[in-house]
Write a structure and sequence with these properties.
The chain is built from 22 helices and 21 strands. The chain has 724 residues and is of the alpha+beta class. The longest helix is centred in the C-terminal third of the chain and has 54 residues.
């Protein structure tokens, strides 16, 4: 079958497809967390003493003794077997943005050869996967393979159902034999602990009593594209790179803004229903779904949860999404920029901190100027973003995310903080040394009797800000759609811990010097604003004026590419930040720089090789075949004296030759491997290989507009985006 026949058959198959059957949705109450060994399940299955110990561990991080772990393991096994489970797996989160799992059976044989089910606290607490075959940044050598997984009781175990059976999944950390963190969970747990420690100091100085353990929370808005699997399977770039490396723009794209919040296509809605029912069974609180801006693009947003659980659930959500999409004949694309010229996909991370006794400490209430705890915690965020903006840029850096950051669909690569009109005024007043009453947003009255008036928010939203306050939390809008949320959460928690330690020291000094509490808070925050207020910006983050002003007048950094961003991990101030808070040792931090650098280089190398392959073996033959047909027609017309216009043939020949000349240069560039550092290799990938890929694509995309439709081998944008 020729390439173009494959494409046309894909269209035929889609147009004649039958939607997967999904029954009527079950009630939320009947399926919610039914496959999760959460506190409700534990209370039913455990003894009172074991449940009390587990509840304390989950809610406060208190240690769990081995005897209780044995009791929990037995109950967990019995609960899982009742649900048809035969295998268990520690699931962990290596430095790949993906999950990893090693399945073991409950089965053991006894002395007479009979099989029995067995699962002890020892097996629950510790597993042993190969530690050398995951990205480790030189923490482990190939001949030193031992690694450990260890149960994380604060994130509930669950049952994963697939067509091949059910497995008990046990969220775990992953470390080397020498004790270094090889995963994304250990730093997240450490960062929460560091933030809690510093927050307790500040709240104690503010006179708070009975302070419960503080935790950060996360709600991640996941954007994604759906493409029919018939189209995706005919596009090697989508299968291997997750994005289209070639593709001329469709005549209709997103310019009418008619897809955003539009009616969800029936086939997609069936997928969403099935997808979300599975999420509910796993205790993932999916709350919102809708069409996104680009055609074929959608979003799902869970309700917020404790950061560690939310990070685990985010990884699980991506896994379930891909599995369910396949069931419905789709491929779910989580790449940040699968289609050139259309909005890319992000994962806006809504982040806050709080506890059971003081509540959400980033909730300003109705009178934020009187809420001193809020002002201190919000000020701590302002200081953290100003000091560690390059770190925040580094933790969302990837070859994929470079395609969207700085464009008009995503925040700029300059880290600033948006507070909204009301809060910005409060902090500017503090900078002047006083607190003044704020003005509410007022009533929204449209003058229509049938429309009830309501209280307007005190400030508008700013979608151009990478780090925006949105009512009772901050929204880190620059996170990429395919990324783990753990890295951003670690950075935010750690910078907050550092700033709260700074505030606690200043506050203690001011109070011991005789200031009353309010005066001390204003004094500390005034000093904070004098040093760090430049990071606050409420205007258009896309404007060239802001980019110039941010760098030249405010001293902020514009960090356009991953090659520019990742060296922040090696900056002495960042090394000191993670070392002082106990979140990452210098060796662990350096390992992350090496892993992420290698991933960036390899991502671009894979894409470059695909460009060469697809241009040479797919696009070139199609274009040459069509050129030969046109040439024959031109020769025939000339013999008849008709004199047909030969301009299309000339353009075809020019672009074929141009594309293959670019392919030759790109192939030579890929072959270069002599670099003195990861940084120089990254810069070469960004400044040499990427432009050659773009050059090759420009010729190929022009060819798509010249070659007759029946000759073109690759599914087109107009087909992939609009045929559902």
């Amino acid at each position: 079958m020729s390439g173009n026949e494959s494409r046309l058959q894909a269209i035929h198959a889609i147009n004649n497809s039958v939607a997967a059957e999904v029954g009527m949705p079950e009630s939320l109450q009947s399926i919610w967390a039914c496959d999760v060994f959460n506190l409700a399940s534990m209370e039913e299955k455990l003894s009172k003493s074991a449940f009390k110990a587990m509840k304390k561990t989950v809610q406060t991080g208190a240690p769990l003794d081995a005897a209780t772990a044995d009791v929990v393991a037995m109950a967990m096994k019995d609960w899982a077997i009742e649900k048809g489970v035969k295998f268990f797996s520690h699931i962990f989160y290596p430095m790949t943005n993906a999950t990893a799992e090693k399945h073991d059976g409950f089965i053991v044989t006894n002395f007479d050869g009979n099989a029995i089910n067995e699962f002890s606290g020892k097996l629950l607490i510790k597993g042993e996967p190969d530690g050398s075959s995951f990205p480790n940044g030189s923490l482990r050598m190939t001949n030193a393979a031992r690694g450990y997984t260890a149960w994380d009781p604060s994130s509930p175990a669950y049952i994963m159902h697939t067509a091949n059976g059910a497995t008990l999944m046990i969220p775990s950390v992953f470390m080397s034999w020498t004790g270094e963190a090889l995963d994304k969970k250990i730093p997240l747990l450490r960062s929460n602990a560091a933030m809690n420690k510093a927050a307790q100091k500040v709240l104690t100085l503010m006179g708070e009593k009975n302070i419960a353990t503080l935790n950060s929370s996360c709600g991640a808005e996941q954007e994604y594209f759906l493409v029919d699997e018939n189209f995706a399977n005919a596009r090697p770039d989508l299968i291997l790179a997750g994005r289209t490396l070639f593709g001329a723009p469709s005549a209709k794209g997103q310019q009418f803004d008619d897809h955003y919040f539009g009616a969800i296509p029936a086939r997609v809605q069936v997928f969403m229903q099935d997808f979300e029912d599975q999420l509910y069974r796993l205790g993932i609180p999916a709350k919102t779904h809708h069409n996104e801006v680009a055609p074929g693009q959608f979003e799902i947003a869970p309700y917020y949860e404790a950061a560690n659980v939310a990070a685990d659930h985010q990884q699980l959500l991506m896994t379930v999404m891909k599995m369910t999409a396949k069931k419905h004949g789709f491929v779910a694309l989580l790449h940040e920029k699968p289609f050139a010229g259309l909005n890319g996909s992000g994962k806006h991370v809504n982040w806050s901190v709080g506890n059971a006794t003081q509540g959400n400490l980033l909730d300003p209430g109705n009178t934020p100027e009187e809420n001193l705890n809020f002002l201190l915690f919000c000020g701590a965020v302002i200081r953290g973003v100003h000091l560690y903006g390059p770190l925040l840029r580094a933790v969302i850096a990837s070859a994929a995310n470079d395609h969207r950051l700085g464009a008009n669909e995503a925040p700029p690569a300059i880290l600033s903080v948006y507070l909204g009109d009301q809060l910005e005024k409060v902090f500017l007043d503090i900078k002047e040394g006083n607190l003044k009453p704020t003005v509410s947003g007022g009533d929204m009255d449209l003058g229509l009797s049938q429309i009830l008036s309501f209280q307007r928010d005190p400030g508008d939203r700013n979608r151009t800000s990478p780090f925006a306050f949105t009512g009772n939390r901050f929204e880190f809008r620059a996170v990429g759609s395919s990324q783990s949320v753990s890295g951003p959460l670690v950075a935010m928690n750690t910078m907050l811990a550092d700033s709260l330690e700074w505030i606690a020291a200043k506050l203690e000094s001011s109070i011991s010097g005789g200031m009353d509490q309010t005066a001390a808070v204003i004094h500390v925050l005034k000093a904070l604003m004098d040093e760090h207020g430049n990071v606050i910006f409420g205007g258009d983050g896309y404007s060239s004026e802001w980019h110039e002003k941010a760098v030249n007048e405010r001293g902020l950094k514009n960090i356009p590419t991953t090659a520019d961003a990742l060296p922040a991990f090696l900056d002495p101030s960042v090394v000191e930040l993670f070392s002082n808070t106990g979140v990452l040792t210098p060796v662990e931090l350096k390992s992350r720089y090496e892993v992420y650098s290698e991933q960036y280089i390899l991502s671009i190398e894979v894409e470059a090789k695909l460009v060469v392959d697809m241009a040479t073996t797919s696009i070139y033959p199609a274009a040459v075949s069509y050129l030969s047909v046109i040439t024959e027609s031109l020769n025939a017309s000339a013999s008849l004296g008709l004199g047909l216009d030969a301009s299309v043939a000339t353009k075809l020949a020019d672009n074929i030759n141009g594309m293959m000349a670019s392919v030759e240069k790109l192939s030579a560039a890929i072959a270069v491997h002599d670099f003195d550092s990861e940084k120089s290799h990254m810069e070469y990938s960004a400044k040499t290989i990427r432009p050659l890929m773009d050059e090759t694509r420009a010729f190929a995309d022009t060819l798509e507009t010249l070659v007759a439709d029946k000759f073109w081998p690759l599914p087109k944008y107009s087909e992939m985006l609009f045929i559902k």
